[in-house]
Amino acid sequence: MEYRYLGNSNLKVSAVGLGTWAYGNDTFGRVEDQQSIRAIRAAVEAGVTLIDTAPAYGAGHAEEVVGQAIEGIRDKVVLATKCGTHRDGPKYIRDLSPKRIRKEIESSLSRLNVEQIDLYQIHWPDPDTPLEESVEELLKLKREGKFKYLGVCNFKVDLLKQISEMTDIISLQPQYSLLKRDIEAEILPYLTDHNLGSLSYGTLGGGILSGKYQERPEFEDEKDNRAGFYPFFKKENWPQTQSLIKLLKEIAAAHDQTPAQTAINWAISRAGITTALVGAKNEKQARENAAAADFELSEAEMLALTEESNKVIENLSN
């Protein structure tokens, strides 16, 4: 595993991090809690240090699972969670009001069973709450020792500039993969210029870049809603993605790796990406994801994947 400092902080994180959205048990299909706990522990044993979660994942359930999994190994992980987005039944509600932020961090600390969060992140912007009010409350919580460092997720450059005038942040968490690269135009250069780290999510495009689907999947499980978040599974987009997946399989075979490992390796090799967050539903996936940092794609392979990605993205519809 490769380790990197996150932005200008002293947090040293693994190049492959663990995303825990699936452990909420309401978006990526059903997953048994003990299996999730074993996957988390397998990831840590394989060298993963960064674990990213959020209250919105299963209305706090993912945080509870993470809390159980890291019991006894808290010193081995960099723990990241979020505020500002919560569940109301099937709906995701964005609320960065000071009262809500304080309530959420106290609940997160309790569910995670920790005294302090390493990286606390604004999950999504809230257009109904002035950012100044949110930041003021976050700074109070930081002074109280509730978290070490502040980060943001899903912010555009204008909001990054705004919050950076109010306080120090160390990282951004954007969606990024071979099928989603819009942050390359302005956001990644901004992060690099300002010494900010990045925790990219959606590294496998909801699983499509794993190459495991021979045909377009129909997610019949009522708890599997990934097709609503990732447009790559749409009927009109599925054929467009296949040339890229074919190339992933070819390059993966040349390295005796999986397509998923190859897609992860491409992401963590891109300029401006500190850590690629990847989910793992079981121990095998956790270990394989971690091993994605243990080989090197050639310049020609990186270029081939990037060029094919460009062609595919041009033809995708949102």
TrEMBL record:
GO terms for molecular function: oxidoreductase activity. Pfam families: Aldo_ket_red. Keywords: Oxidoreductase. The keyword Oxidoreductase applies. GO terms for cellular component: cytosol. Residues 16-306 form the NADP-dependent oxidoreductase domain. Gene3D superfamilies: NADP-dependent oxidoreductase domain. PANTHER family: NAD(P)-LINKED OXIDOREDUCTASE SUPERFAMILY PROTEIN, NADH-SPECIFIC METHYLGLYOXAL REDUCTASE-RELATED. This is Aryl-alcohol dehydrogenase-like predicted oxidoreductase.
